[in-house]
Amino acid sequence: MEFLNKEATKIFEKLNNQLDDGYLKIENSPYMPLTMQNLDWPIYTNWGKAKTISLCNYYIFQGQIMFTPEMHFLVIDWCNHSSVFNDNLRIIPYLYFLSNLGVYNDSIITQNSVLSQINPDLQKHQTEFANDWLINIRDKGYLNR
User: Fold this and answer.
1) Considering the entire predicted model, what is its pTM?
2) Is the dihedral of CA 38, 28, 14, 93 positive or negative?
3) Pairing of β 103-106 and β 23-26
4) pLDDT-derived band of residue 86, with 50, 70 and 90 as boundaries?
5) Is there a domain that residue 83 lies in?
6) Can you give the residue range of the structural domain that contains 73?
7) What is the tally of structural domains in the chain?
8) DSSP letters of the chain?
9) What is the predicted pLDDT for the residue at 145?
10) What is the spatial distance between Cα 54 and Cα 38, in angstroms, rounded to a whole number?
11) What is the distance between the alpha carbons of residues 5 and 131, in angstroms, rounded to a whole number?
């Protein structure tokens, strides 16, 4: 299982700390809106209890929301707080969805709120993408909004 690298984790945490009632939307023209949303709690993993968070860029096309991309993450905080960055925070990318191309890749299976199976090659690829995407989010100024 691959975790976000330290730089991407810090960016993710800055976004996560801005959630208002489990939701965040950032408008950053000329770029697509960025949203973050709490999805489920809890998912039990070998690393501890995790919450599930969605992060996505999107646009509207013919009345349909097009995610470009949407990713889901398991967020495990061994200290049970995330107000200040700490090395105990672990973030696991596990789902990649690109609606305009019909791509949907889920690298884990949960049963009864327990992580039961992992596709390690796919999950590693998703982590590499998420690391780059989060740096791109920072570099495009989403954290300054």
Assistant:
1) 0.92
2) positive
3) unpaired
4) low
5) yes
6) 6-144
7) 1
8) -----HHHHHHHHHHHTT-BTTEEEE--TTSPPEEEEEEEEEEEETTEEEEEEEEEEEEEETTEEEEEEEEEEEEEETTS--SS--TTEEEEEEEEEEGGGTEEEE-EEEETTEEEEE-HHHHHHHHHHHHHHHHHHHHTTGGG-
9) 81
10) 6
11) 7
Nearest-CA neighbor of 53 among 31, 30, 23, 83?
A: 23
Token pair belonging to 83? 């107000």
In a domain, 1, yes or no: no
Is residue 128 very low, low, confident or very high in pLDDT (cuts 50, 70, 90)? very high
- Local confidence band at 47 (pLDDT 50, 70, 90 cut-offs): confident
Q: Is residue 118 part of a domain?
A: yes
Task: List, in sequence order, every residue forming a beta bridge with 106; answer none if it has no partner.
Answer: 95
CA neighbor of 56 nearest in space, from 39, 37, 28:
37
Q: Which residue has the tokens 């998420």?
A: 130
Query: Is the distance from CB of 41 to CB of 52 less than 8 angstroms?
Result: yes
Average pLDDT in the 115-141 region?
A: 98
| Amino acid at site 125 | H
